[in-house]
Amino acid sequence: MSIGTAFNVALGLVLTYLLLGMLASSFQELVVGAIKLRGKRLLGTLDRLLCDNLGSGDAPSLAARVKAHALVKPLGAAELPSYLPAKSFALALMNVLAQGSQAPAFSQIENGVAQLPASSAKDSLTMFVQRAAGDLDALQTHLQTWFDDAMDRASGEYKRFSQYFLLTFGLVAAVAFNVDSIRIATTLWNDPATVRAAIVQTAAATAAKPAPGADGTPPADATAVLQQLQALPIPIGWTDDAKHAGATSDPFAIFAHAVFGDGASGVWRVLGWVLTAFGVSLGAPFWFNALQQMMGLRASGPKPARSDA
User: Fold this and answer.
1) Same domain flag for 12 and 94
2) Range of the domain at 225
3) Where does residue 92 rank: exposed (0-12), middle (13-18), buried (19+ CB within 10 A)?
4) Can you give the pLDDT at residue 130?
5) Is the pLDDT of residue 53 over 70?
6) Which positions ≥6 away from 209 have C-beta within 8 Å?
7) Are residues 21 and 108 located together in one domain of the fold?
8) What is the C-alpha R_g of the chain?
9) Domain boundary among 91, 122, 155
10) Rounded Cα gap, residues 225 and 18, in angstroms
C-alpha cells in the first residue's frame, strides 16, 4: 500500500466534505435568516429567563417590558434582534425594575424586584440584589453573567439544530448529486496519478482562504462552491449511471437502477451516501482545520511517494 496514495485519498475526501459543508452552511444561513431563527431564539431565551408569566391582569410581563425597551429593540426596528449584548440586557432590566427612572437608584431596583410575583426569576433577582449590597456596578455584573449563562445554554440548543440540519442536508446533497464516499475513495485509490495534481492544487488554494465561519467572514457563495465541487476530478453526479440505465432520462428510473438494479452494489452506494452525510454533519470548520493540518504536514514532511513510480 502506498502512503502517498492513501494521503491523496484522504485529502480528496476531506476536500469534498469541506466543500459540501460550506454549501450546507450557506443554505443554513438562508433558512435561519428566512425564519428569523436567531431573533426568535433570543426572545425565547428572554422569556424563559424572566419567566414570561410575571404580568398581573392586563399589565405587561417583565419579559415583555424588557423586550420592548429601547436598548433591546431600538425604536422603529422592524426586524427581530439577532444579538443582544449582556450589558444592554442588564441596563434595560435595571431600568425596567426602577420603573423607568433616568438614573435608577439601587433602592428603586430593590423595590421593583420585591413587587414581582413569585417566580424563579424573582428568586434569582432577589439573590443578585442581596449580593450586590447597594452596589449598582456589582448588580449589573451579576445580571450580565446571568444573561450570558442563559445564552450559552441557548447556544447548545442551536448547535444541535445545526448538526441535524447539516446531517439532513448532507444526505439530501449526497443523493441529489450522487456524492458517494466509497466510490470517490475507490477512484482516487485506483487512479491517483491522474487526479493528484488537481486535488492538491485545489486543496492548497482552499486552505489559504479564511476559515469558514470565522468572525467577519461572510457565508460562502453557494453557486461558486457548487462549481468548485463539480470541477474536482472525482466521480460526482449521475452521468455514468444514466448511461448504465439505458436510454431512459427519467431520474427516478436512473436512481432505481443505481440502487436496486446492480446486485449488491446498491448497498455500497447507499452506504457511500450515508458516509458522505456523516462527513458533512461534522461541519465545514472541522474539515477546514483538517485540511490545513494535512497541507501543513505535506509541506513540512517528505512529499508522498508517487504511487506510479
Assistant:
1) no
2) 3-36+157-300
3) buried
4) 95
5) no
6) none
7) no
8) 27
9) 155
10) 10
Domain count along the chain: 2
Burial per residue of 231-248, b for 16 or more beta-carbon CB atoms within 10 angstroms, e otherwise: ebbbbbeeeebbeebeee
Residue 155 one-letter amino acid: S
Q: Would the CA dihedral through 94, 98, 102, 103 be positive or negative?
A: negative
Alpha carbon 214 to its chain centroid, in Å, reads: 11
Is 66 among the domain residues? yes
pLDDT score at 247:
59
Least confident range of 61-75, 109-123, 140-154, 280-294: 61-75
Residue 55 pLDDT level (bands cut at 50, 70, 90): low
Angle, helix 284-300 to helix 3-34, in steps of 10 degrees: 150
pTM of model > 0.85: no
pLDDT of residue 124: 94
Same domain, 112 and 249: no
Cα of first residue to Cα of last residue in the chain, in angstroms, is 13
Domain check: are 176 and 263 in the same one?
yes
* Per-residue confidence band for 139, with pLDDT thresholds at 50, 70 and 90: very high
Judge if 228 and 244 occupy the same domain: yes
C-alpha to C-alpha distances, 251 to 128, 238, 241, 255, 256, nearest whole angstrom? 63, 9, 10, 6, 9
